Amino acid sequence: MRDFRLTLAVAAAVAILSSTVAGATAGPIEAGGASAHASAALSGKQKQAKRKALRRCGKKSSQQRRQACRKKVRKRFEQKPLPPKPVEPTEPTDPAARIDVGDDYFAPNLVSIESGDTVLWIWNDKNHDPHNVTMTSGPAGVDRKKFETSGSPAVEYSFWRTFTVPGTYEFACSLHTDMKLTVVVS
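^ that's the sequence the OP posted. Answer follows.
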């Protein structure tokens, strides 16, 4: 009887491993009525851990426990769907002003626009240093956080904002304090 159980356990492990390998090339596998994702996207260490866990399941004393164990292992190693990529607004095609961000300068450094106009900052591909846009002062009620870059890119980056509140906006690069820009909105 013991040899028979061992044979069943080995056969079950071989079936699981072969279905996992087949799933890696054939896509999703229907196993026990539940969809098990292919392990092709798992790293080598994750595949090895999954195989080891499934082998441990084969050693369970009853068939019900073995099935429950396998289900738990498959769920743990199941591929999670990737979160949706955020939709980024498209770069304005006709900004009222274009500011070149270069090593230690904004060009031009003084811009006059009307309320509702958009300003586009472009980091050129010749920069060596990272730069950012930080609003140092502006009209009352304007949120400074909405007028600054989230990081400090060096090259091939663009940033734009639409100015709706009239007034004078002062900008600088927080990494290079001599980089200053004034935007006057009428």
